[in-house]
Amino acid sequence: MKTKRAVFLCIFLGCWNYRDLEDLNIMMGAAIDKNQENGEYKLTIEIINQAQSGGQSGGEGGQEEPKSPKSFLIEAEGHTVFDAVRNAVRQTGKRLFWGHCKGIIISQEIAREGILTILDLFWRDAEIRPDIWIAVAGNAEAGDILKAKTESGDPVSVILDNTLDAGESVSTFVKDELTPFVEKLSVKTNSVVAPAVYIKNEEGEPSPEIKGTAVFKEDKLKYFLDEEESQTALLLMNQLKGGVLTLEENSTSQPSGKMRISLEIYGSNVKIDPSFINGELTMEIEAQLEAGVSELAGSENYLNKEKEKNWRKT
After folding, report:
1. pTM for this predicted structure
2. Nearby residues of 197 by Cβ (< 8 Å), 6 or more positions away
3. 23 or 76: which leads in pLDDT
4. How crowded is the C-beta side of 261, counted as CA atoms within 13 Å?
5. What does the angle CA 170 – CA 173 – CA 178 come to, to the nearest 5 degrees?
6. SS3 of 92, please?
7. Angle between helix 116-124 and helix 178-185 axes, rounded to 10 deg
8. What's the mean pLDDT when you consider all of the chain?
9. pLDDT(312) > 70
């Protein structure tokens, strides 16, 4: 009887909120800026183009492969973010579906003013998944990042999401999901972090790039960390699980007199012991890295224990 009741409830709840996909705009990502002229919020939304994304494409050997998703952008403004969301419906005649949203990019201006009120909508909306990521635009408006082109032609939100998922193997930025991010913002002693997204202009078309980390104190952006600083931050937070550590040593076999060594990081363990000495806060940090030698750009043997002790980080 309990099983039948559970099945009935699942069917009932699913049908109660049923909506045809053709009546919805399925979002991939969103960006939030401020209009400098009128002070309103400007929302840029990346939406799946269902007409171009469905079906199959021809593959090798006559086999068909799924088509890559295609997308288009719409922009809307409003007195609040929710007002802008509703105003977006005027452009397409369809409501926005947030259930597949990968993440939200927030402009640097809004981040410096304070983002807790901006995130309140996403925190409350039951349709938005709690594991979406929050990012901060580094060198451009947030909306311009969604307008950039990707080499594969895939939606920008998808590329950024894939990059963030592979973050542990790179370890040059810090990722956090919506729920823990908002929870940490409410604690005044926390410094909360989010990935920083930039536009790089190489060989013509601008393209998006995750590079470094944005650091918040309470809910306001304070500064950015570069890639090396982000790796150190991950180490101090005991979250460094991968990436590459580059060392430089003297070498007689190289014209520059230097040899670079690449270590692949497998894990880390850090102990931090804070104390007050003569009225000043000091930190004693003990860090242990588990790593393997992946590359030796020279002929010297730097794998003996005595030389390993003298390795220097570049």
Report:
1. 0.79
2. 105, 135, 136, 137, 138, 145, 160, 208, 209, 210, 211
3. 76
4. 21
5. 120
6. helix
7. 140
8. 80
9. no
